[in-house]
Amino acid sequence: MPRIIGVDIPANKRVTYALQALYGIGPAIAAEIIERAKINPDLKASQLTDENIAAITNLIQNDYVVEGDLRRELVTNIRRLQIINSYRGLRHKKGLPVRGQRTRTNARTRKGKKVTVGAIRDKTQRRVAASDKEAKAAAAAAPAAPAKKK
């Protein structure tokens, strides 16, 4: 497996697809890198020479923001939005959709599992909830009796 910028790229794939294993490199940028490095796109990643790997690494390090630097940049951008209390920052903070999607229905990916708030519709569940409430009230009202020693 060839290693580029600290990431093992899959050896059994063509170079164009293998480069996409790097965070921040998609199909268009991968094709552009191969073209600028003058590498045959039909080569498998395992067939790359050390010179080819060095050329690819050099191009990526000098011209593109990838992997940890890109992740760090995204996190700082989101943190900046939250600090200045912009609308987008507040949505990130609350865990709601940021780009104007509706939230009355859907948005389950951001909001998480549905939590019912308010009335309990099922009568049996209502009885159980009422009895739990009464038990808690009785326990709070009754003074705690000291434990007996044997």
Descriptive account of the structure:
With 150 residues, this protein is mainly alpha-helical. Among the domains are: 3-63, Helicase, Ruva Protein, domain 3 (Orthogonal Bundle), CATH 1.10.8.50; 105-140, no CATH class. 51% of the residues lie in helices and 3% in strands. The protein has seven helices and two strands; from the N terminus they run ββααααααα. The protein has helices at residues 15-18, 27-36, 50-63, 67-83, 87-94, 108-111, 123-141, and strands at 3-4, 7-8. A two-stranded antiparallel ribbon has the order 1-2. Helix 4 (67-83) crosses helix 5. The longest helix has 19 residues, at 123-141.
Concise overview:
This protein has helices at 15-18, 27-36, 50-63, 67-83, 87-94, 108-111, 123-141; strands spanning 3-4, 7-8.
- SSE pattern, N- to C-terminal: EEHHHHHHH
* Oligomer status: single chain
Please bin the fraction of helical residues: 40-55%
Describe the global form: elongated
Gyration radius (Cα, Å) is 29 Å
CATH class of the domain at 3-63: Mainly Alpha
End-to-end CA span: 71 Å
Main sheet, how many strands, which sense, barrel?
Answer: 2 strands, antiparallel
The number of helical segments is 7
Sequence stretches where pLDDT stays below 50 over 5 or more residues: none
Q: Find the structural class using helix and strand composition.
A: mainly alpha
Mean pLDDT comes to: 88
CATH topology of the domain at 3-63: Helicase, Ruva Protein, domain 3
The name of the CATH architecture of the domain at 3-63 is Orthogonal Bundle
Percentage of β-strand residues: under 5%
Order of neighbouring strands in the sheet with most strands: 1-2
The counted number of beta strands is 2
